[in-house]
Design brief:
Elements: H1 3-14, E1 18-19, H2 20-26, E2 30-33, E3 40-41, E4 44-46, E5 59-61, E6 75-78, E7 91-93, H3 97-111, E8 115-120, H4 125-136, E9 142-144, H5 152-161, E10 168-172, H6 175-178, H7 184-189, E11 193-196, H8 204-207, H9 212-220, E12 231-235, H10 241-250, E13 254-259, E14 266-274, E15 277-284, E16 287-293, H11 298-313, H12 318-323, E17 336-342, E18 345-351, H13 358-370, E19 379-384, H14 401-407, E20 410-414, E21 430-434, H15 437-443, E22 453-457, H16 468-474
Parallel strand pairs: 4-5, 5-6, 6-7, 8-10, 8-11, 9-10, 11-12, 12-13, 13-14, 18-22, 19-20, 19-22, 20-21
Antiparallel strand pairs: 1-3, 2-7, 14-15, 15-16, 17-18
């Protein structure tokens, strides 16, 4: 056993990876504002990054890019140029905070003897990461990226946190990281299991992708430094599945496919609406698992299958994990069901405003199609602009035409770009069109009828004040 691993087990045994003196010595720094003698820290993150690593406040590394001094921090690591004595928080001065963080990142990854899972995909990576990390917490210790912090800062923060040597780590990785010219961070991930949830033209313009094939090759890089004997779970429903499989296998990973039918290695035998959640029956390597999940929709059902399959491949009990699905927190603004008061009664609102990538829109429409309508009510889709379809991809809106016609009785369009499909839809199905979210929030409540089932898929980029579903709820009682 080498010295780094011995050190990792020692740190884990004492439950406090870093003491003040050894942190200063390791980073060749000086405490400008010294901590107390019994001070200890478990996790060190870039300033401004949330921490899903521990309930305790993290130590914040302040750099030129991450130049925040969060008051909830346990300490600051900074370049010593700012006077922070008035903040009353321990402060460690180092020559270069970013170099210090990378030193912590390398040491953290070297210290971890547990299993690492890396998740990527154009759609579904955050929910898959959330499901898997929550399930793994029931069988061991687990650190994971926080929220949607799937960029370099969030990933490095978790890699540094591996110094606690948890049993598991789950990292969500975006295309910007996989496509980065500087490879050190992504090369350090070295997953035991990789997961590719979907491939579509998300962020295509900003990353220079000209086709889904370009995106597929980028996503496959999640397996580029997979550990010997590693497995890559790949969604069999991906249009470019064969290309993804070939590329991943070229990196030495074994591919396990998951999907909606028996053409995949593991598959969903049945998925259907069950209250405000979904009932799923899955076949995982010949074993039938049935479970209820608060995550609503076919896309989330597939993500849950990926999570359970990863649990199984990690050697944990997938049946036991499946029983815990009903206890998972309901994801906010991701196909969440709400009751909406309208004039003369109530409607069912499906809030899916967290994001709007093309495949997520189509999946939401397919879920709306499969839902049982309430007596006398319509199935209504409220759809907004998709940032992915801007610029040269504007014609891609036409791919939504058929799913809309098959799924909705009426559709309302919100935004100038999505208006391009108005002429492609049958006469009468477009019940209204609004220039922006504010206009929709003002006028749409009067258009919704009792017993309607209303899907709202208008991206808010995670911000409440731009969430049309929230605005509709706020309008309750004002109609």
């Amino acid at each position: 056993m080498d010295e780094t691993v011995k050190c990792a087990f020692a740190r884990k045994a004492r439950n406090v990876p870093w003491h003040a003196d050894e942190l200063a010595e390791f980073l060749e720094g000086e405490w400008i504002v010294p901590p107390s003698k019994d001070w200890g820290a478990s996790y060190i993150v870039y300033a401004g990054c949330g921490s899903a690593l521990s309930k305790e406040a993290p130590v914040s590394v302040v750099t030129e890019k991450y130049a925040k001094y969060p008051k909830q921090s346990k300490a600051f690591i900074f370049d010593g140029e700012k006077d922070v004595t008035h903040m009353g928080i321990p402060a460690l001065s180092v020559q270069n905070p970013n170099d210090a963080m990378m030193k912590l990142v390398r040491f953290g990854r070297e210290s971890m003897t547990g299993k690492v899972v890396a998740v990527t995909g154009s759609v579904g990576k955050t929910s898959t990461k959330d499901m898997l990390s929550e399930l793994l917490k029931t069988v061991g210790t687990c650190v994971h990226t926080f929220g949607s912090q799937n960029t370099l800062s969030g990933i490095r923060s978790v890699l540094a946190g591996m110094v606690s040597n948890p049993e598991y780590a789950v990292l969500e990785v975006c295309s910007h990281v996989l496509n980065a010219r500087l490879r050190e961070t992504v090369n350090l991930i070295r997953p035991d299991i990789a997961v590719i949830t979907q491939v579509c033209l998300a962020h295509a313009d900003e990353l220079g992708f000209g086709s889904e094939a370009d995106v597929a090759v980028c996503k496959a890089r999640i397996a580029e430094n997979i550990r010997d004997g590693g497995v890559c779970l790949v969604n069999r429903e991906i249009a470019e599945y064969d290309l993804v499989k070939k590329t991943v296998e070229g990196y030495g990973a074994r591919v396990v496919s998951y999907g909606l039918d028996e053409k995949a290695d593991v598959w969903i035998a049945e998925a259907k609406e069950s209250g405000d959640g979904f009932f799923v029956s899955a076949n995982i390597f010949g074993n039938r698992l049935c479970y209820e999940t608060p995550y609503f929709g076919f896309g989330f059902a597939l993500n849950s299958l990926a999570a359970l399959t990863a649990v199984h491949l990690l050697g944990a009990d997938a049946h036991r994990a499946a029983e815990r699905f009903s206890d998972l927190p309901v994801p906010k603004h991701r196909m969440s069901i709400r009751a909406l008061d309208v004039k003369g009664g109530r409607a069912k609102l499906i809030d899916d405003c967290f994001n709007a990538q093309p495949l997520a829109v189509i999946d939401a429409l397919h879920t709306l199609k499969a839902m049982t309508p309430m007596p006398g009510g319509r199935k209504v889709a409220v759809l907004g602009d998709i940032r992915t379809f801007s610029g040269k991809f504007i014609d891609e809106y036409k791919t939504l035409t058929r799913p809309i016609v098959e799924s909705a009785d009426s559709v309302y369009l919100v935004g100038k770009d999505v208006m391009t499909i108005r002429g492609e839809l049958p006469v009468g199905i477009v019940a209204g069109a609004f220039a922006d979210i504010d206009e929709a929030a003002e006028k749409l409540p009067g258009c919704i009828r009792p017993n309607d089932t209303v899907l709202v898929k208008v991206t808010s980029a995670g911000r409440e004040k731009f969430n049309l579903a929230v605005k509709l709820m706020d309008a309750t009682g004002k109609i």
